[in-house]
Each structure stands twice: as C-alpha cells, then as structure tokens.
Design goal:
Layout lengths: L3 H8 L9 H10 L1 E5 L4 E3 L7 E7 L2 E6 L5 E7 L4 E2 L1 H6 L6 E4 L3 E7 H10 L1 H27 L2 H10 L8 E3 L4 H7 L4 H11 L4 E4 L2 E4 L2 H8 L6
Antiparallel strand pairs: 1-8, 2-7, 3-6, 3-8, 4-5, 4-7, 9-11, 10-11
Length: 227
C-alpha cells in the first residue's frame, strides 16, 4: 500500500487523469513507494521489466549503453511521469537502464498486476493506449529533431519546453552535460549552440538561463504545432 502522501501524488499522474478513482485505487493498492538517492540505478539495460514506475518526486533519466559501456541519456522523467510501460505490457527485456538524477520518490507497480489490470479494467486499458500513443509521438518528435533541426534549433525547442517565469528565467532541471546527451550533442556542441542563441536573447550560466524574446526563439526553433 502507498502512504497517504504518496497516494495523493500517485493519483496526479497524467496516465490516471481520465480513470475512475476505483481503478486508480486498485493499482495503488498493489504499488509501493521507495526513496532513491541521486545516481541510484533503478534497473539495468537487458533486465526484465518487473515493475511499472511512476515518479512521485525527483528526476530520472533513461540511459542507453553501448558495447563499450559508453552511456547516453535518451529521455528525462519528472513528477507524474510513468515509464517502461511498453516493456511491461510486452514482457520483453528493457532496452535501457534508468538512473536517478536527483533524490527521488518513486512508486513501483508489479508488472503482473499491470497486465492483469489491462485484461480486467477497460478504463486502464484505454489510459494505457493513450500513454503509449503519447510516448510514440514524443519518440517521433525526437527523431524529427535529430534529422531536421540544427543543434541550436534543438536547444531552442528544448528550452521553450521548460517552465519559465514571467521574466523568462529558467532553471535547467538537469546539468548541461546531460541535456547535451538528451539532445544528441557533445558538451562542446551544446556550448556552441548556447553561444549561437545569444543573438536571440538567450543568456545565462550553469543551470540558470533567461529567454528575453520567446516569440523570436519560437520562430527560430520552427516548433511543430501539431502536438
């Protein structure tokens, strides 16, 4: 069972937004929450998917690793995000590892319970289809970015996706090195991309960034408005 505070965060996950409370409670009753320290490995590439993960607080990175053990961040997940649902549904080995980027609280739902719910609960099955479809569109968007946008455009689009204040201030959730990996760049390419965006009013150091003219940055990034 989840603690009361954990359950409140659990219910806020977008996956459950259109599910009745009884369905969410059935999933929650099978789940448990754990606190993980920064840099903890949740699971490794090639492991079997034993749980569906729901981030209650903190940040997690999905990491691909090549035959030489070189790692690259593929995607970030924050509060409310659900990950590795495809591997859970298909009962296939995990294609990536997951590492905790900040101290995090994460709910773990046993994979067998998830598959049982898919068979028995229509609302959860519909929610899962929506979540898988959303992840598919995010993946296609990443592929388009890598193939069609230059590095500064990819960085511009990423910055515009982050929460910012009225004055355009952004606190980067991750270190710049990890952001470079997520965007398919080297750290040096990311530095050059930031330098290139100065002419569009993007300034800052470290994890603090300011966007002075969001409209100009949007035009430059050529954002896809199709969602």
């Amino acid at each position: 069972m989840l603690a009361i505070g954990d359950h409140a965060q659990f219910r806020r996950a977008p996956l459950f937004a259109q599910m009745p409370g009884a369905s969410i409670d059935r999933l929650g009753s099978a789940a448990h929450a754990q606190t993980f320290a920064s840099k903890s490995l949740l699971f490794d590439q090639g492991d079997q998917a034993e749980f569906l993960y729901v981030v209650l607080s903190g940040r997690v990175g999905l990491i691909g690793r090549d035959q030489d053990d070189h790692e690259m961040v593929v995607e970030f997940f924050g509060p409310g995000d659900v990950f590795i649902i495809a591997a859970v549904v298909l009962e296939l080995p995990l294609l990536m590892a997951a590492r905790v980027l900040d101290d995090s609280r994460i709910a773990l739902i046993p994979a067998a319970n998830v598959r049982d719910m898919l068979e028995a609960d229509h609302a959860f099955a519909k929610a899962t289809v929506r979540e898988l479809s959303r992840h598919w569109r995010l993946l296609v968007g990443q592929i388009k970015d890598l193939k069609l946008r230059r590095a500064p455009q990819r960085l511009a689009a990423h910055l515009l996706s982050l929460p910012r204040s009225r004055t355009g201030e952004i606190h980067l959730p991750e270190e710049r090195q990890l952001i470079a990996q997520r965007l398919g760049m080297t750290p040096e390419s990311l530095s050059r991309a930031f330098a290139d965006l100065k002419r569009l009013g993007v300034t800052g150091r470290g994890r603090q960034v300011v966007i002075a003219d969001a409209a100009s940055l949007e035009r430059y990034a050529a954002l896809d408005k199709s969602g």
